[in-house]
Amino acid sequence: MTIKKDSLIKRIVYMAIMYFIGPLPLSFVLIMSYKKNIVTLIALTVAWVLANAAVIYIAYRLVCRYTQKPILQKANLSDLLYVFGGYATILISNGILTFLNHAIYNRVQSPNNLAIEKSLLNHHQLMVAVLIINLIVVTPIVEELIYRGMAFNLFFNSNQVWLKILLSAVLFSSAHQSNTIFSFLTYAFIGIILGFVYWKSGKLQNSMALHALTNLVAVLAILL
């Protein structure tokens, strides 16, 4: 089924539903910080796995419905260039915006990053392990399916690429906690770069890989 067979209202509803349910599985991880009983912790971990599986399945089906092509495609050398070139661009944009955020607002990290850092450093091993997997594996899959796969293919025409990129970037940034314009722009620029990589390569797996690489380095920086 193509995009023309669904009304704009229906596409907006799809997007709104996934925007709000996408982060919900993480709540099971956050609840872990208040629990010590091993049975409860295992039950929360199972709930986290099942909730993420449901979200990924729904988002995957919607993306396939509107793109009518597989999510995973044959990789080649150019894909590595997109991923590592995109990461280098993210480092540059993050550096500039972090500098401006510190110079103007005297803040270095966003509330989102501070919350992640606190969770990784101040909780028990099971919660930390699940959170690391969530950040490095699950989040890139879920967020790329929703903010690139869906936002790109549910809205605007094929010749309105930059509107697609900007929409996906704004939605992506709004889903992360920000307390200054520069912290919001930091996530927005990451969203723009992820969107650009998806558009130019035509492969959602590349924006997923770039997203995973970005999160991996951030997690390692906190832990090490």
TrEMBL record:
<feature type="transmembrane region" description="Helical">
    <location>
        <begin position="38"/>
        <end position="60"/>
    </location>
</feature>
<feature type="transmembrane region" description="Helical">
    <location>
        <begin position="181"/>
        <end position="199"/>
    </location>
</feature>
<dbReference type="GO" id="GO:0080120">
    <property type="term" value="P:CAAX-box protein maturation"/>
</dbReference>
<dbReference type="InterPro" id="IPR052710">
    <property type="entry name" value="CAAX_protease"/>
</dbReference>
<feature type="transmembrane region" description="Helical">
    <location>
        <begin position="80"/>
        <end position="104"/>
    </location>
</feature>
<keyword id="KW-1133">Transmembrane helix</keyword>
<dbReference type="GO" id="GO:0004175">
    <property type="term" value="F:endopeptidase activity"/>
</dbReference>
<keyword id="KW-0812">Transmembrane</keyword>
<feature type="transmembrane region" description="Helical">
    <location>
        <begin position="12"/>
        <end position="32"/>
    </location>
</feature>
<feature type="domain" description="CAAX prenyl protease 2/Lysostaphin resistance protein A-like">
    <location>
        <begin position="128"/>
        <end position="217"/>
    </location>
</feature>
<dbReference type="InterPro" id="IPR003675">
    <property type="entry name" value="Rce1/LyrA-like_dom"/>
</dbReference>
<comment type="similarity">
    <text>Belongs to the UPF0177 family.</text>
</comment>
<dbReference type="Pfam" id="PF02517">
    <property type="entry name" value="Rce1-like"/>
</dbReference>
<protein>
    <submittedName>
        <fullName>Type II CAAX endopeptidase family protein</fullName>
    </submittedName>
</protein>
<keyword id="KW-0472">Membrane</keyword>
<feature type="transmembrane region" description="Helical">
    <location>
        <begin position="124"/>
        <end position="142"/>
    </location>
</feature>
<feature type="transmembrane region" description="Helical">
    <location>
        <begin position="154"/>
        <end position="175"/>
    </location>
</feature>
